[in-house]
Amino acid sequence: MERKVIQKVKGFRATDGAGVSLVRVLGHETVYDFDPFLMLDSFDSTDLREYRAGFPTHPHRGIETVSFLAKGRMTHGDHLGTKETINAGEAQWLTAGSGAFHSEQPGGNHLLGLQLWLNLPKKDKMLAAPAYHSITNDEIQEFPFEGGKLRLLTGEYQGHKGWQGKYLPLDYYDIHMDANAKLTLDVKPENTVMVFTLVGDVVAGGSHIEPKTAARLVDGDKVTIESGKNGAEVMLMSAPALHEPIAWYGPIVMNTQSEIRTAIHELNDVTFVKQNTEY
């Protein structure tokens, strides 16, 4: 059965980090509707002044962040000693788990991409050890279709497997569509499915979706996407909902306010980073 759009959220201009200009799409108001997707930020600028200050070192707990760049570059550094740069077409996956510190420094003449915050299950938030992985172009499989191509960033596509995180399965596709192209995808009927229009607009699930808009599609195992006369680059994300309570404070997402207070206390007490051994 074909999934239909039940909710659309258009992004608005905001700043984060040390003054990086971005488009904030999902946030506090949408966490239960788009569960397990917590936050979605989009970057699209050719003005270096809007992003060169980057995101200085900051903490995370209870989530995984997945960043994708269609253009530009992003250098990640963290308390584990990691320092890696992704370039156009690549992605990076940070498991913050029980507590991580990291920084992100964007660069290039055109920064185009997005960052997704993926919630961690309650049982894993304080057991998951911090970890980082760069998803480079040489491990991203591409699948042509009439009028475009689909790039498998994470998860599965038609039986093919890409890189995958350990805690919550995420099917994440980067879809390039020429003018007037059409693609029908199989999706897991139990999952939350979201389409985001990174470049251009499309019709998906029978509804028109403007640029820089997230659409949630429900009830079905197929999604059909159609581009217009200018083509489009569309991201599709599919993951199982957690149906768990959410307590969110800045870069920390837990299940209770008590856990948030503990995290703040540990930040102040310099005991935030744990000695996990699961990875």
Question: What would you note in describing this structure?
Answer:
- The chain has 279 residues and is mostly beta strands.
- It is 4% helix and 55% strand.
- It has one helix and 24 strands.
- The chain has one helix at residues 257-268, and strands at 4-10, 12-16, 20-26, 37-45, 55-60, 63-78, 83-86, 91-95, 100-119, 131-135, 141-145, 148-154, 156-157, 160-161, 171-177, 182-186, 191-199, 202-204, 207-209, 213-218, 222-227, 232-240, 247-249, 252-254.
- The longest helix has 12 residues, at 257-268.
- The protein is globular and about 55 Å long.
From the helix content, strand content and strand pairing, which structural class follows?
Answer: mainly beta
Largest sheet descriptor: 9 strands, antiparallel
Query: Unreliable runs, pLDDT <50, ≥5 residues?
Result: none
Radius of gyration: 18 Å
Range of strand content: over 45%
| Count of DSSP H/I helices | 1
Helical residue percent band: under 10%
The total beta strand count reads 24
Query: What string, H for helix and E for strand, traces the elements in order?
Result: EEEEEEEEEEEEEEEEEEEEEEEEH
- What general form does the structure show? globular
